[in-house]
Inverse folding.
């Protein structure tokens, strides 16, 4: 088998993983991956009892749950009020 075919085969195989592998990839617990499967939040392929995940498909599916940051608009002349300190007598 030529080197190009070996590299292509290795790359193609590395896109697929099992439940433990997908948990390690996303740094989740295996139980959390099972919950995401049950909730249909990540795509998976199941043949009999064998479950496999396509890593790029799972990454794309989880993008739907991305929360963007909110930046407050800066208004000219706006300043934060000074804190009220209790006087100690």
């Amino acid at each position: 088998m030529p080197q190009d075919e070996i590299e292509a085969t290795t790359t193609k195989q590395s896109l697929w993983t099992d439940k433990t592998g997908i948990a390690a990839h996303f740094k989740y617990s295996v139980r959390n991956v099972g919950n995401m499967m049950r909730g249909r939040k990540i795509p998976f392929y199941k043949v009999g009892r064998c479950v496999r995940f396509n890593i790029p498909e799972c990454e794309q599916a989880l993008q739907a749950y991305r929360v963007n940051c909110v930046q407050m608009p800066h208004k000219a002349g706006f300043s934060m009020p000074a804190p009220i300190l209790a006087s100690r007598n």
Remarks:
- The first strand starts at residue 16 and ends at 17.
